[in-house]
Amino acid sequence: MRIIVSGGGTGGHIYPAMALIKRLQERDMIESVLYVGTEKGLESKIVTRENIPFKTIKISGFKRKLTLQNVKVLQMFFSSIGKSKKIIREFKPDVVVGTGGYVSSAVVYAAHTLKIPTVIHEQNTIAGITNKFLGHFVNKIVIAFKQAEDQFPEKQKIVFAGNPRAQEAAAIKKNDRLKDFKLDANKPTVLIFGGSRGATPINKAVIAALPDFAKADFQMMFVTGRVHYDGVIKQIDDKYLQARNIAILPYIDNMPEILPDLKLIVGRSGATSIAEITALGLPAIFIPSPYVTHDHQTVNANSVAENGAAKVIAESDLTADKLFNNVASIMNDQQVQAKMSQASKEIGVPDASDKLIAVLTGLINKS
């Protein structure tokens, strides 16, 4: 197939798109692919690094307040639709997929006006403003959480398929990477991290809980985030830096690779993280970021906790004791681990990319 994919702004929009492209390549289903993003967006770095053809349009989001700037944004939107139409006519795609972010609004809407089959993918429980807008025009709305179905009035278009990142994670096998961090590959290990940039409240709680973690019968990996690492290290007593069961790191490249070696994940509840965790059947303790739009991470986290696959600690309630006690209650009880792991597997979608590809091929064949 010839496919245009568009999504940008955050990794949560970009990585599922990349996972879809990768799976299409693995199945030898791509004749040609083009990714449309913005020049300044994160996608420009991620996509070009993978040597995927990449073109840009200029677009930005509307301000939430009525301002003169929104007039300029509206003009930019209509201009970006024109640019998108030109790109689409030149590329001649069989299907166009949008994974969220302002850039996908222009690209997918332009494809709709040109009568090209269109699909959007919504990663979160609460749909983004772009996908809500596009839902009126696209042929199919693919969701990763069943709770998102209520966000769209176009029920007949909705298909539940999960998040393509899940299928990437499901393919990863246990690989003893813990040895790379001077930990015992055969000892139960928990990973605690606050996202790619780290999170100060989580870091503070972990630092205060280090005396308890140092005495635990399990191992703990603590990822601070690059920008926080030096400051965190200065606050930690040397005996904890040298503890055999503790590894403190600024960042882990290709973090999904270590997931099969873990017994528990503690961190934020972004859609990509949840897709990866549940695909592998890992128990989790979520500390949702309260700073995201519509507090969607809390809704994401609760949707997993309702199935018994995770516990949720609000950032405002986070303390060192609460963090350690919740971790220990899972890590020290194999029966609890097994129950949470089974619940996690039950809501995971390890074939998410293939399900999305089936939607695409169905539309192409129909057209």
Automatic annotation (TrEMBL):
CDD domains: GT28_MurG. GO terms for biological process: carbohydrate metabolic process; cell division; cell wall organization; peptidoglycan biosynthetic process; regulation of cell shape. Its EC number is 2.4.1.227. Pfam families: Glyco_tran_28_C, Glyco_transf_28. It comes from the Bacteria. It catalyses: Mur2Ac(oyl-L-Ala-gamma-D-Glu-L-Lys-D-Ala-D-Ala)-di-trans,octa-cis-undecaprenyl diphosphate + UDP-N-acetyl-alpha-D-glucosamine = beta-D-GlcNAc-(1->4)-Mur2Ac(oyl-L-Ala-gamma-D-Glu-L-Lys-D-Ala-D-Ala)-di-trans,octa-cis-undecaprenyl diphosphate + UDP + H(+). It is found in: Cell membrane. Residues 3-142 form the Glycosyltransferase family 28 N-terminal domain. It is a peripheral membrane protein. GO terms for cellular component: plasma membrane. GO terms for molecular function: undecaprenyldiphospho-muramoylpentapeptide beta-N-acetylglucosaminyltransferase activity. It is an enzyme of class 2 (transferase). Keywords: Cell cycle, Cell division, Cell membrane, Cell shape, Cell wall biogenesis/degradation, Glycosyltransferase, Membrane, Peptidoglycan synthesis, Transferase. The keyword Membrane applies. Pathway: Cell wall biogenesis; peptidoglycan biosynthesis. Residues 189-355 form the Glycosyl transferase family 28 C-terminal domain. UDP-N-acetyl-alpha-D-glucosamine binds at T10, G11, G12, N124, S196, I252, Q297. Cell wall formation. Catalyzes the transfer of a GlcNAc subunit on undecaprenyl-pyrophosphoryl-MurNAc-pentapeptide (lipid intermediate I) to form undecaprenyl-pyrophosphoryl-MurNAc-(pentapeptide)GlcNAc (lipid intermediate II). Belongs to the glycosyltransferase 28 family. MurG subfamily. HAMAP family: MurG. This is UDP-N-acetylglucosamine--N-acetylmuramyl-(pentapeptide) pyrophosphoryl-undecaprenol N-acetylglucosamine transferase. It comes from Companilactobacillus versmoldensis DSM 14857 = KCTC 3814. The gene is murG.
